[in-house]
Write a structure and sequence with these properties.
heterodimer, A: 343 residues, mainly alpha, 12 helices, elongated, B: 227 residues, two-stranded antiparallel sheet
Chain lengths: 343, 227
């Protein structure tokens, strides 16, 4: 068939399909809402693909082949398009999906804990014996600043605050802390080394701050400040590190897949861990900004709240989303001819 | 071996879709445009928020955080894979199989941007792109995405109009492109040279010299869909 006849014969179908595409794009269709087409869309799409193949094999003009190619490409994207996220799936992820993913990666999560808390506690211990060790990790000006921030005699813990300040600090904590999580994760692509570095570095630094403040007996202001938000923030760091190590180790030990495939697969899982870590850090920022620095709240209350949050965090990660085995039920007979012969 | 930046994807219907992959230069320009847009937004926000004191500073910090990390994700997922910079340069982000980018893939490629940006201005990203046959940076490799040209249909560069005529025999796409490119070059060639080239195809056009040139122009017009 020559090209002109071909075009004349099918142009109306192509126009119909194009109108459907335009309508779909314009209305930003919500899931499930159907945009009607005269015949059913998959059928028309398959015909369109056939036409494209014909045009290519019959060497019709480049313009026509391009046009059909574009039409097929756009149709392909709508027909094989992605899932929209529903609110139900978000809740499902929060209460079931995320804790399960964390438990699936328990060895990496444990390793993350080791790499972070190990240096942290080690440095705290060392500083009690060799107080000057703090200067190997933090420079003297910053040490002085930390000392003044946590002075038990002052009216406030941390930085000077009023209500506006709280929100400013909230903004700062979001900006600073979530970025740390993201960078810890991104560093993992370098065979996991970036994540390891970030976790150890943060562990050392936080350990130095804690160790120094404990040594000069500023423990009460320190712990009453950090009690509330530490559960979420520190756990999020270890989770981000675990997520980063997962993608890095996929490159080191891809198992039976190619490195590229292993990387892609592990990235999808790691990302789920990051969603959770991100949220936890945002919550921690909120608590840190609006609760932690309030000196009018009795330290005992803050310690209690802190301990509760720590317990809750780990209870959540360890137990949320577990399926408990139901007692076995008898399968009902499909028809009445079962062996027991009951009437 | 043909060195080309086309990647063909076979769909379940057995059709081959052609995607033309965008290289580091155009992606770099697109990034720069996005960078300027973001900088302008930050300056505007900084000005506005400075008027409401510390609360404003908090808002500013949160806004900068959100925009810095989530600006590309928002545009890639909601706007057909195109940030404003990419849209301006006619490229977009797609999955490897030609589908629109998923939220998950967008997150992965944009979080890993933090690493691709090192040591400065996408050093590692650039090296990876150059070592990769599909110009993928680390974020693209991990997420399974590609950056391709949007491939808008348009007429080729000014070709002199002529009454469209189909060639006597069907020509395959490479041959058609050769004739179209000849027609694009004709204004820059002197008449003797264009006739010399046109005479190569005298068996096809059944003509010589000036008539052959005209005939080839007519074929080119036809191939471009002019009626």
């Amino acid at each position: 068939m020559n090209q002109d006849k071909f075009v004349d014969k099918y142009q109306s179908k192509w126009d119909g399909f194009e109108a459907w595409l335009a309508q779909k794009a314009r209305l930003d269709i919500k899931e499930g809402q159907v945009v009607p087409l005269a015949n059913d869309v998959p059928h028309i799409y398959r015909q369109l693909c056939h036409h494209l193949s014909l045009a290519q094999s019959r060497n019709y003009s480049a313009y026509l082949v391009d046009y059909l190619n574009q039409l097929v490409l756009r149709g392909h994207q709508y027909i094989y398009g992605q899932q929209k996220v529903s609110s139900n799936s978000i809740l499902q992820f929060m209460f079931v999906g995320f804790p399960r993913v964390v438990r699936d990666e328990k060895w990496l999560v444990l390793l993350g804990h080791l790499l972070f808390y190990g240096p942290l506690f080690a440095v705290v211990a060392v500083i009690q014996i060799f107080p000057d060790f703090v200067y190997s990790i933090i420079d003297p000006q910053n040490v002085e600043q930390i000392r003044s921030m946590y002075n038990p005699d002052s009216d406030y813990i941390g930085r000077a605050r009023d209500a506006d300040d709280d929100f400013k600090m909230f903004g700062f904590y979001i900006y600073n802390n979530v970025s740390i999580d993201f960078k810890t994760f991104a560093g993992g692509i370098f065979y996991g080394l970036g994540s390891i570095f970030f976790m150890v570095f943060n562990g050392l630094h936080i350990g130095a701050v804690f160790g120094y403040l404990i040594h000069i007996e500023y423990g009460t202001p320190l712990f009453s400040f950090v009690a509330g938000h530490s559960a979420f923030e520190l756990t999020a760091i270890t989770l981000s590190g675990a997520a980063g190590m997962k993608i890095g180790f996929a490159l080191v030990a891809p198992g039976r897949k190619t490195r590229g495939q292993a990387l892609k697969d592990s990235a999808k899982i790691s990302l789920q861990i990051m969603y959770g870590a991100m949220t936890m850090t945002a919550l921690a920022a909120f608590i840190e900004a609006f609760w932690s620095s309030k000196t009018f709240i009795d330290p005992q209350i803050k310690y209690t709240v802190g301990i509760v949050l720590w317990v809750l965090t780990y209870a959540y990660l360890l137990f949320a989303g577990r399926q408990y085995r139901k007692p076995a039920t008898r399968t009902p007979a499909i028809n009445n001819t079962d062996n027991t012969g009951t009437a | 071996m043909i060195i080309d930046s086309y990647r063909t994807v076979e769909t379940p219907e057995g059709v081959e879709l052609a995607l033309r992959i965008a290289g580091p230069a155009v992606r770099g320009y697109a990034w720069f445009i996005d960078f300027l847009i973001r900088a302008a937004i930050y300056m505007a926000l900084a000005f506005v928020f400075s008027l409401i004191g510390d609360f404003g500073t908090g808002l500013l910090l949160i806004s900068i955080f959100l925009i810095e990390w989530f600006y590309p994700i928002f545009f890639e997922v909601r706007k057909y894979g195109m940030t404003p910079g990419k849209k301006a340069l006619g490229i977009r982000v797609v999955m490897e199989d030609g589908n629109e980018i998923t939220l998950q893939a967008s997150f992965i490629r944009n979080l890993l941007r933090a690493f691709d940006f090192l040591p400065f201005l996408y050093g590692f990203g650039l090296v990876t792109m150059l070592c990769n046959s599909e110009f993928k940076r680390l974020g693209d490799i991990s997420a399974g995405t590609l950056v391709v040209y949007r491939h808008e249909l348009g007429e080729a560069v000014d070709i002199a109009k002529a009454i469209p005529a189909a060639p006597a025999v069907p020509l395959n796409s490479a041959e058609q492109k050769a004739i179209i490119q000849y027609a694009e070059r004709v204004p820059n060639l002197n008449p003797e040279r264009s006739m010399e080239l046109a005479n190569i195809l005298s068996d096809l056009t059944k003509a010589k010299d000036h008539t052959a040139t005209t005939k080839l122009l007519q074929y080119a017009n036809w191939m471009l869909g002019r009626r």
